[in-house]
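Human: Cast an eye over this sequence-structure pair and say how the chain folds.
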Amino acid sequence: MSSPDTIVQSVQDAARPLATLLQLMRRARSADGDDALGFVMVNESRQLLDYRQAALWRDGPWGRDGPMGRVAALSGLAEADAAAPYVQWLAGVFRSVVAKAAADAPVRVLQSEDLPPLLAQDWPNWLPAQVLWLRLQPPGTQTSGALLLAREQAWSDYELTLATELADAYAHAQSRFAPQRHWRERLGAWLRPGRARRWLLLALLLLVCCPVRLTVLARGEVTPQEPLLVRAPIGGVIDSIAVQPNQQVMAGTPLFSLDQTTLAGQYALASQAREAAMEAYRQSAQLAVTDDRGKLEMAMDRARLDEKVIEADFTGRQLARIHVKAPQAGVVVFSDRGDWQGRAVAVGEKVMTLADPARVELTAFLPVAEAIQVQPGTALRLYPNAAPTESYDAVVSRVAYRAEATEDGVLAYRIQAAFRTGQTMPRLGQMGTARVYGDWVPLIYYALRRPLTAARQWLGW
């Protein structure tokens, strides 16, 4: 029967490898770089598994280690020389085993029969007979490396179990320093597996090639068709506005009046000058009956009278024009009465517009940055701001060839469009957003049109 001391010693002997395993796992997790981690793998693993030689291999598909990987660390050496014969032979072994053991168990005993004949015949020159292969494969990622441990004694089942846990811990720690996969590798991984993914890629390709209608948004406004512009007949200051914005008026309705103070004074002076000239002409006509000199003065007074009559008549006509009336029936369109009262205007300056509310059209301003191919006959649709449930269809009738600055300071092309018949006409002056329909284009072009435009402007294609 075993003594208590013997039992305690047996328990301690059994627990010592587990404690060493935990210590190595901690050392691997706390490594500050892949070189430090490689040193732990090839040198400090000897505390758990007794071996004579160790080598670490890191895969490198399209990464920094080249497409085939490299020998990253060797036991007892600070750095592995890639030109050394031993390192070159190990690289061939690793490549050969990795290519065939991708689906094998992560830990297994490697034998010379697992190698090609050229590599197997050099085995006794470089490695002991018993070689343990540890595949370092982090879960959820591609394989990232392998650890080779070699010695003369055979490996026990218990050591294989410890090696399995150690390989899992090393793989997890090494995944922290694994380089990012290249886009070509990711694309290849996406294209390789299964028929379902290929069908998905085909469906995605057909989707991006699906034709869609190219549309852009522009600011829209309902404007009168063939409006009559009401202009200032003479230069002066607007004294009063007799109508309200958007008021329905009849022909002859007073619209606005100019200040008459200056013209009234000028007309009074011209009238007095005309009366004085007429009196002078009457006196010279009477004198001309008896005096030949009076005939000459009568001719001069007659000319002066005609001049004053013309001045008085012109001033009178100008005074009569200060009261502007509507030449025809319609709706008066202008901004606000307060904006015009007391404002100085020049001859011919537009004050308001007289429009027929039954004859309206759509005016849209297409920004230069959003410009597409628009020509007469292109379809538009107006979405009024004040009526979110309504829309109005229109057809382009005219397109400005040159962009102009809008009220917002944005360069835009002016588009005139006629509303389609058979629908209720929108209210004059209504604002909204106009959707301009262009040609049919692939969906990928529709999605990338703005980024491609910005890239072209930035790169100067």
Summary: Residues 208 and 443 are 5 Å apart (CA to CA). Confidence is low (pLDDT under 50) at residues 62-67. The domain at 4-185 is CATH 3.30.450.40 (Beta-Lactamase).
